[in-house]
């Protein structure tokens, strides 16, 4: 604290998250502290929406379209746009931080929420995962993004250079899941025109790698009913 010129004479109370490392640091410093209410609320809301943390020894099953998508580009396309400026080592470290964030949220929810509430949250998380799978596909697939761009030109009447991209949420960024779902709402008509094309003979030939179960979107009214209250907070 002295190194950062945070003199104890100016100190009132230290605001922290609920991590064990932060609590331990407070005990070592022997100062008064309080847990950040905004952070606790974030753990509850984000805990419902984010991708679950990997369990020890768990092998994550890759989507069946992933291998075909990765072959579309010579240079691997990163899942998160904020990683594009990072080195390979930093990307690996960032993945570790995301896993830690997910583990912290799961630990918080296990301690704070009754089982019946947790089951309901898991059901919501499953719905959000469908949109995350879609966003990941379009993020990694150049031909998928190109087709979505054409759909935007016809439905949103924008230039190709003005077409928006779907976003994949990041566990360590507040509101990133909200931003991902909001982008789906903005591109609702464009996505709606993409799926009929996917069912056409031309679309089936172009997108052989996409399994129907991997791109099945939740019903519009279910989605709006689920995300609407969150939009009311912004």
TrEMBL record:
Highest rank taxon of the organism: Eukaryota
InterPro entries attached to this UniProt entry: RNaseH-like_sf (IPR012337)
Protein name: hAT-like transposase RNase-H fold domain-containing protein
Species, as recorded: Phytophthora citrophthora
């Amino acid at each position: 604290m002295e190194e950062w010129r945070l003199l104890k004479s100016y100190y009132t109370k230290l605001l922290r998250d609920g991590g064990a490392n932060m609590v331990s640091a407070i005990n070592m410093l022997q100062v008064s502290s309080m847990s950040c209410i905004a952070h606790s609320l974030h753990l509850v809301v984000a805990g419902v929406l984010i991708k679950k943390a990997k369990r020890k020894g768990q092998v994550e099953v890759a989507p069946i379209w992933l291998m075909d998508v990765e072959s579309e580009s010579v240079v691997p396309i990163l899942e998160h746009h904020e990683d594009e400026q990072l080195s390979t080592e930093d990307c690996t470290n960032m993945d570790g931080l995301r896993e830690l964030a997910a583990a912290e949220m799961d630990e918080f929810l296990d301690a704070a929420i009754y089982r019946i509430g947790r089951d309901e949250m898991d059901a919501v998380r499953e719905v959000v995962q469908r949109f995350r799978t879609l966003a990941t596909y379009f993020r990694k697939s150049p031909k998928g993004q190109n087709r979505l761009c054409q759909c935007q030109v016809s439905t949103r009447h924008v230039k190709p250079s003005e077409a928006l991209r779907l976003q994949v949420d990041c566990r360590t960024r507040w509101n990133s899941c909200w931003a991902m779902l909001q982008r789906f709402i903005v591109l609702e008509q464009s996505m709606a025109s993409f799926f009929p094309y996917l069912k056409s003979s031309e679309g089936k030939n172009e997108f052989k790698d996409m399994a129907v179960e991997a791109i099945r979107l939740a019903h519009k009214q279910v989605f709006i009913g689920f995300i609407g209250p969150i939009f009311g907070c912004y």
